[in-house]
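Bug report

Summary: structure tokens for Lin0512 family protein differ between web form and batch submission.
Environment: batch mode, default settings.
Steps: 1) Submit the sequence below via batch. 2) Compare with the web form result.

Sequence submitted:
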Amino acid sequence: MWKRYIIELGFGADLHGQDMTKAAKRAVEDAIRRSCLCGLEEVLGIQDFDEIRVHVTIACPNPEAIQESEVLSVLPVGQKSIQVRKGGMAVPGLYVQGFGDVDDSVVVVNACVEVSVAVD
């Protein structure tokens, strides 16, 4: 049976370019930078961190634009999975053609990262 060990939340933004994947990667990085999984080894005795499951939920304005494998690539360990849903936000920013903008929006993406472990 798998049980959740930790849940972390993060957010990421792309101020110019409206790149949902870039913002999603930043959101996942934001979440995992605030966690130390020392209890996996010290309390549970897990030696191989590829034995854990890491599930990411992404909420963004345009879910179809997310390149899932790229987002998962920022996770350093674990059996990785992802779910992408509509959410996050796009707010008015500044259109600068030279920055690669397609419009004037700032894209904000939310991430929830869940680490689960097998227990008897």
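Above is the batch result. After comparison, the two runs are identical; trailing whitespace caused the diff. The chain has one domain: 2-91+104-118. Residues 68 and 82 are 7 Å apart (CA to CA).
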